[in-house]
Amino acid sequence: QVQLVESGGGLVQAGGSLRLSCAVSGGTFSRYAMGWFRQAPGKEREFVATIIWSGGRAYYGDPAKGRFTISRDNAKNTVYLQMTSLKPEDTGVYFCARDRNMRRFGYSAIKEDYDYWGQGTQVTVSS
Fold it and tell me: How far is it, in rounded angstroms, from Cα 93 to Cα 123?
C-alpha cells in the first residue's frame, strides 16, 4: 500500500517562504515521477510542479515558475517543494502525488496521470 504524507504548510506573510515535504511509504519511490498540485477554495486542482523519477529534471506550472523548486531525495523517499516570494494567490491546499506510470518518459501535468495522493497540507499567504 502506497501512502503519501505532506507536511510543512502553514500561515506566512506575502513575500515569505515555505518548504513542503511529502514522505512516501510503500512501492518503489525511485521509479516514479512525483508531482505537486494545489487547490484553492472553489477552484479546480492545478498543477504546480513535477520531478522525474531520477530527479534529473523538473517541470513547473506557470504559477510556480521562477519562485518554486521541486526536489527529491530517493534515499529518504521524500519529495520537497521549496516556495519563495509567496503571494496571497498561492493560498490553497497543496497535494503531492505519485505518477501512475513507472519511469515515465517526459512528464505529465495532468492530475489523472497520478494515482496516489496525500491528504494535503494547507498553505495560507496573508497580504
Answer: 6
